[in-house]
Amino acid sequence: QVQLVESGGGLVQPGGSLRLSCAASGITADPYAIGWFRQAPGKEREGVSCVSNSDGSTYYADSVKGRFTISKDGDKKMVYLQMNSLKPEDTAVYYCATMRSSLLYAYYAEYWGQGTQVTVSS
C-alpha cells in the first residue's frame, strides 16, 4: 500500500524555523513530483511547494518564496520542507502528496499523507 508519513510539525514562535519530513513507501512507480500542501481551519487546501522527481526542479507558492526550501533524498525516498521566518499565517496542517503535475493545485495530487500540525504563535 502507498503510505506517506509527515513529521516535524510543532509549535514555533514567529520568525522561527521548522523542518518537515515526508517519507514515502509502497509506490511502485515514481510519481511526477512530490509536493507539500497546507490547510488552515475554514480555508481551502493550498499548494506550498513541490519538487520534480525527474530533474529536481522546485516550485513555490508566492507566499513562501524566499522563506521555504524543498529538497529530496532519493535514497530514502524522503522529501523535506525547510521553513524559515515563519509567520502566524503559516499556521496549518501540512500534507505531503504524490503529484502527477508540478502545478501547485490539490487537483493534481494522487496520494496524501495524514498531515502534521504547524502552529506559529507567540
Characterise the protein shown here.
This protein is an all-beta fold and 122 residues long. It contains no helices and 11 strands. The strands form 2 sheets. Strands 2, 4, 5, 6, 9, 10 and 11 form a 7-stranded mixed β-sheet that branches. Strands 1-3-8-7 form a 4-stranded antiparallel β-sheet, with no helix packed on it.
Principal-axis shape equals globular
Count of helix runs = 0
Q: Tally the beta strands.
A: 11
Helix/strand structural class: mainly beta
Strand-and-helix sequence, N→C? EEEEEEEEEEE
Main sheet characteristics: 7 strands, mixed
Taken as a percent bin, the fraction of beta residues is: over 45%
Mean pLDDT: 94
Amount of helix: under 10%
Low confidence ranges: none
- Radius of gyration, in Å, reads 13 Å
Gap between N and C termini: 40 Å
Write the layout of secondary structure elements.
Layout: E1 3-7, E2 10-12, E3 18-25, E4 33-39, E5 46-52, E6 58-60, E7 68-73, E8 78-83, E9 92-99, E10 109-112, E11 116-120
Parallel strand pairs: 2-11
Antiparallel strand pairs: 1-3, 3-8, 4-5, 4-9, 5-6, 7-8, 9-10, 9-11
